[in-house]
Amino acid sequence: LHANAQHSSESSISDTISSSTTTDSSELEGDIEEEEEVQESCWRNCYKQVEALLFQVIITKTVMPVKIAEEDEESAHVRKQWMYFAWILCETTIFVSAFFVVIYGLKMDQKSTNEWLFFSFKNSFTRVILLAPMKIIIFATILAILYGQLQYVPSYECNTETAMKKDMIGNPSFLAQILKTRRSAWYHPLYYKTVLSIRRNEKNWRRWKIIINFTVVLLLYITLMVQVLMNWDGLYIPTRRNIQNIFDIKKSTDKVKDFGTYLDYLRTVVMPALSIKYWYNGDM
């Protein structure tokens, strides 16, 4: 009996130990699975947030323009005049700047001009092609985040289209204006094909405008490079005329003895040195 009792107690202890180990292992496995699920859910939520942010940045909603007042013919004419004046002023500024850039390039030798052109094009490429789109993307991301937080606030929600429709439907003056417009002999709605052709023409005009602007800038850069490269030749630049040698007092003032020789010195030495063509040399 004593042996049987001892054997039964040992078996019960082993059963409790095995059951405790199995429960501990199952709890550990459950904790590991829960942690993995939490990590997966966190990564999934982060991915969804990034996807929603990119969707808001790339595929944005079209915003209807807000018209404070209708533009009459006189104001439209004045606006077009100022637009043409601004365009002419911008083009003139670009070409004048290019002219001064060419003059600056002619004052240096071939190696310095090559280095200067390389670094100028490199800086313009990095600023216009790389940094400008990055800044636009960063600002667009910030605005998308702010817009995503503010668009669901009830106090700021306002659908202008529904408000205008509600105001127009019950407005008798608006209905009378519609009837008057449709009863006139000149009223004729456009066909759908005509509307499509107008939209197609506007799209083509915008595309051609972008191409023309790009072509003008490209021609400006090509003209600048060609002018600088051509003016390195001796046909366009006087050969090695240095202003310091012209104004050397020891060499130039030895012949000045009286007022007549001084006038000859001014006419033959000083005035040609002040001419702009003598600045185009390789020594300066």
UniProtKB/TrEMBL annotation:
Please provide the record's keywords in A-Z order: Membrane, Transmembrane, Transmembrane helix
Q: Where is this region: Disordered?
A: 1-31
Q: State the InterPro entries in the record.
A: Polycystin
For this record, the Gene Ontology CC terms, alphabetical, are: membrane
Report any one BP term from Gene Ontology.
Answer: detection of mechanical stimulus
* Signal sequence annotation: none
Q: Where is the composition biased (Low complexity)?
A: 8-25
Lineage, top-rank taxon, reads Eukaryota
Annotated GO molecular function terms are: calcium channel activity
Query: Which residue windows are transmembrane per the record?
Result: 84-105, 125-147, 210-230
What PANTHER family does the annotation carry?
POLYCYSTIN FAMILY MEMBER, REJ DOMAIN-CONTAINING PROTEIN
What name does this protein carry?
Uncharacterized protein
